[in-house]
Amino acid sequence: MPQYIGSKLRKTEAILRNKSLRQFVPKTVRLNRLQLLRMLQQFKMVYVKPVSGTGGNGVMRVEKTAAGYHFQILTRKRSYKSLNAMYSAIQKETRGRGYLIQKGIHLLKYRGRRFDLRIMAQLNLRKRWETTGIIGRVAAPRKIVTNYHSGGTPTPVSRLLGSLSNKRKYNLTIQKLKNMGVTSGRAMKARFPGVCEVGVDVGLDSTLKPWILEVNTRPDPYIFRKLSDPSIFRKIRRYAKAYGRL
Ligand SMILES: Nc1ncnc2c1ncn2[C@@H]1O[C@H](COP(=O)(O)OP(=O)(O)OP(=O)(O)O)[C@@H](O)[C@H]1O
Ligand SMILES: [Mg+2]
User: Fold this and answer.
1) Could you tell me if 97 and 124 lie in one domain?
2) What are the residue boundaries of the ATP-grasp domain, all occurrences included (predicted)?
3) How far is ligand 1, taken at its centre, from the CA of residue 201, in Å?
């Protein structure tokens, strides 16, 4: 079985060591009240997530506006007059478990729903990193996470991005994302030698800049079964079998 790294903070550190990836990593710090104050002053909107969470569980979207402080978990949105009042409410959710704060990305929307992308990169049969799949994930209405297990819908990238730019720009964007998968795989393996596959969660902002929201070291291969081209999942499975995952 390939190596699994649970801590999003340790994985972020590993990615930050790579000079070409650094620019795509949203600022990430451990959660405490002072850091929340600072991050909200700097970015106005942040995500608060369990350090070792999965499936979008426990993920919160936190905002500072002229009207006050707001946070949303699942589809429940609550407002507070002061940071202290909101922080007490957040602490009830975190219950002493490790959490982090990350700069929030205003994700692009498709038919009014937020979406992000999952890039699958794997060691191929020649032990070289290869991007084997890219798929979009569209959040359920009013949800702040796109995860399949939180009601997200796997969607072909061409449907999500095809209309946003011309064919040439689209192809260039896809090529960049594929390179990002390969570079992320290499960066993770440099720090954690047992890693053989990565699933990079990438958010796009309104300028189409890709942001690395997190790098999964045991990504779900089955989501790629939702694509109409069956050869994509077959290749993912072939590579995964070769390094002992499936
Ligand atoms: N900084 C952010 N800005 C905007 N959206 C975010 C941000 N961080 C996370 N999200 C949204 O929340 C979802 C879940 O976050 P993340 O992938 O970090 O945790 P997780 O899904 O619980 O972990 P895993 O992918 O290992 O199951 C993302 O796919 C994305 O839709
Ligand atoms: Mg994720």
Assistant:
1) no
2) 18-241
3) 7
Contact 204, 195 (CB under 8 A): no
Is 49's C-beta closer than 6 angstroms to any atom of ligand 1?
yes
Measured distance CA(46)–CA(28) in Å, rounded: 10
Angle at the Cα of 160 from the Cα atoms of 117 and 195, rounded to 5 degrees:
15
Q: Residue 186 carries which side chain, given as an amino acid letter?
A: R
Give the pLDDT confidence of 89-134 residue by residue, as tens digits. Answer: 999 999 989 999 999 999 999 999 999 999 999 999 999 999 999 9
**Of the residues 61, 82, 103, the one at which a domain ends:** 103
Please work out whether the CB of residue 154 comes within 6 Å of at least one atom of ligand 1.
Answer: no
Helix (H, G, I), strand (E, B) or coil at 236: helix
Q: Is residue 212 within 6 Å of ligand 1 at its C-beta?
A: no
Is 15 part of any domain?
no
Q: Which ligand is nearest to the CA of 212?
A: 1
